[in-house]
Automatic annotation (TrEMBL):
ABC transporter domain mapped to chain residues: 351-585
Entries under SMART domains matching the protein: AAA
Membrane is among the record's keywords: yes
Membrane topology: Multi-pass membrane protein
Domain of life of the organism encoding this protein: Bacteria
Subcellular location: Cell membrane
Organism: Salinicoccus siamensis
Main localization of the protein described in the UniProt heading: membrane
TM region positions: 29-50, 70-95, 140-167, 173-191, 256-279
GO molecular function, one term: ATP binding
PROSITE patterns: ABC_TM1F (PS50929), ABC_TRANSPORTER_1 (PS00211), ABC_TRANSPORTER_2 (PS50893)
Protein name, per record: ABC transporter ATP-binding protein
Function: May be involved in multidrug export. Transmembrane domains (TMD) form a pore in the cell membrane and the ATP-binding domain (NBD) is responsible for energy generation.
């Protein structure tokens, strides 16, 4: 599988963070209100020690308790605490709302990008890796918004306000507290450098675990048949163990550089403050309230830094995760772009391949100078050994891949200029192994075309003779379909796929070895459906069983990406070439 960039530099992290924060722009009102609530919440936190200092120095120490003044102080203290509780709740609510909205849009954008990626991308990247990016990685970003962004902003407000209050109480000590900032900055910078690397590897390995899980679940029948459980378990354990090791490296880094180191600096600062006030008491009066307030502000100065440092691992993880999501969204291996000609329309289904050459990797040509014509209503069959280029012709015609040499036209219009909607609406594709979605038979035939009525769905099923088995099922067309249609036979899945294709009434029909996995008894029924489907439609058919395409108007025999023979069944048999040998082999003749 492809590896993402594992080591994010400071500039990389900055760019990822800026891009992530742009997702908050549609929610400026929520963000502004969240900042306001955060500011008020922080102000109440700063006001609390000051009110306690007033009570200690003005009332408790001298032992004077005027009832009215004490009552007002209690009321003010209560108001500050209630206001702090309400604004803290609002602050948490608003930032969580913002986080979920941002991730909701990020997931929409990422999923939309997957729909625009070309087959070249899916040839390289496992499905499990994509699932990991859209689920696990985006969830890590949620944690950043909730656990880090609000904490970081609160830390900024609290540190600044605490400093202001410390300067008000004692300028010298406030300046002394500033001396600890470079030490803290160095600790955080060292942590960021190493933890980014550890988190990047851990995220990559988590993606690999998801890919391995998806592959194992998908191929469980083969794994069990070939007794590969132990090998798969060992491979999974190797990835899992490496993932554990990188997580533990980060745990050790956290334990060394985060709270213990910051706490040690805090304790040192407290010792200095107490020593300072102790020495100061020999020269002048030092009130208990001032000492209490200064210690409280010092704690409020260091505690947010401690909280930020504790959440740095979440922050690092979120940036790495966001980078992986943005790497997906920035990938340029898109599906071919249509140079739209709005007048291009499929009317008759006249297909021409004109000297088409194509390579998947840009080095080895899998198709070489392919030229042929399929006239309206004709069936052109593609035959050849594995790797001869049959599926590549279909892939180019369906615009799964871009080609640079030659051209393919439909009714005189280049396929590159055909509007995508026109191409998908007028061309029907039936694959060798049709994919059946979770839902109902009706939803699989309709395939979410909103304007298609149930009568049209039923008519499509009847057209391909699928209604015979559908009506015998509980619920008929509303029968529940499990994942991939596992409860149906290959023939039944294929008939549902036929009905799905015919429901859009295509002008051109593409059959990619539609009967390759069908048993002989079912094949007869499938052949009746295919004959009916092909009637009046231009058809390109990849044929595995030569008996199924003997009535084709033209048969193209491919070998190593070239058309080496062409003609009808009788003509090719008479020529005694590759087709004749293939026919003899399939019919058991020497």
């Amino acid at each position: 599988m492809e590896n993402d960039k594992l080591n994010l530099t400071f500039n990389d992290q900055k760019d990822v963070l800026i891009r992530l924060m742009k997702y908050t722009l549609p929610f400026k009102g929520v963000l502004t209100l969240g900042f306001l609530m955060l500011a008020v919440s922080t102000a109440t936190g700063v006001a609390t020690p000051y009110l306690v200092m007033i009570f200690i120095d003005d009332y408790l120490t001298p032992g004077v308790f005027p009832e009215q003044d004490i009552m007002w102080l209690i009321i003010l203290f209560a108001i500050v605490q209630i206001l702090g509780a309400v604004t803290t709740y609002m602050n948490i609510y608003l930032f969580q709302y913002l986080a979920f909205k941002v991730i909701q849009q990020l997931r929409i954008d990422a999923f939309e990008k997957i729909g625009r990626l070309g087959m070249r991308y899916f040839d390289k990247v496992p499905g499990g890796s994509l699932v990991s990016r859209i689920t696990n990685d985006t969830e890590a970003i949620v944690d950043m918004f909730i656990g880090v962004l609000a904490t970081f902003l609160m830390a900024i407000f609290m540190v600044i306000s605490s400093f202001v209050m410390m300067f008000i109480l004692d300028v010298k000590l406030a300046l002394f507290a500033l001396l600890f900032m470079p030490v803290i900055a160095v600790i955080l910078a060292v942590y960021r450098k190493y933890s980014a690397n550890f988190f990047s590897h851990a995220r990559q390995l988590l993606s690999e675990m998801n890919a391995k899980l998806a592959e194992s679940i998908e191929g469980m029948k083969i794994i069990q048949v070939f007794n590969q459980e132990r090998r798969l378990q060992e491979e999974f354990n190797t990835i899992n163990e490496t993932h554990y090791k990188y997580n533990m490296k980060n745990v050790k880094l956290d334990g060394l550089l985060l709270r213990p180191a910051i706490s040690m600096i805090y304790v040192l600062a407290i010792a200095v403050i107490l020593g300072y006030f102790g020495l100061l008491s020999f020269e002048s009066t030092v009130t208990a309230g001032v000492v209490f307030a200064f210690l409280q502000y010092m704690e409020r100065f260091f505690e947010p830094i401690n909280q930020v440092s504790q959440n740095l691992n979440i922050f690092q993880q979120a940036l790495v995760s966001a980078s992986r999501v943005f790497t997906l969204m920035d990938d340029e291996r898109l599906e071919p772009v249509q140079d739209k000609d709005e007048e291009a329309e499929i009317t008759d289904g006249h297909i021409e391949f004109k000297d088409v050459t194509f390579s998947y990797d840009g080095e080895v040509d899998v198709l070489k100078n392919i030229t042929f014509t399929a006239r309206p209503g004709e069936t052109v069959a593609l035959v050849g050994h594995t790797g001869s280029g049959k599926s590549s012709i279909i892939n180019l015609f369906m615009r799964f891949y871009e080609f640079n040499q030659g051209d393919i036209t439909i009714d005189g219009h280049s396929i590159k200029k055909m509007p995508k909607g026109e191409l998908k609406q007028k061309v029907g594709l039936v694959l060798q192994d049709p994919f059946i979605f979770y839902g109902t038979i009706a939803s699989n035939i309709r395939l979410y075309h909103p304007d298609m009525t149930f009568e049209e769905v039923k008519a499509a099923g009847e057209f391909v003779y699928a209604d015979k088995f559908i009506n015998d099922l509980p619920g008929g067309y509303q029968h529940k379909v499990i994942e991939k249609g596992g409860a149906f036979s290959s023939g039944q899945r294929q008939l549902i796929a036929f009905a799905r294709t015919m429901a859009i009434d295509p002008k051109i029909l593409i059959l990619d070895e539609a009967t390759a996995n069908i048993d002989s008894e079912t094949e007869e029924q499938i052949q009746h459906s295919l004959e009916k489907m092909r009637r009046g439609r231009t058809t390109l058919a990849i044929a595995h069983r030569l008996s199924t395409i003997q009535d084709a108007d033209q048969i193209l025999v491919l070998n190593r990406g070239e058309i080496v023979e062409r003609g009808t069944h009788d003509t090719l048999i008479h020529e005694g070439g590759i087709y004749h040998k293939m026919y003899q082999l399939q019919n058991g003749q020497q």
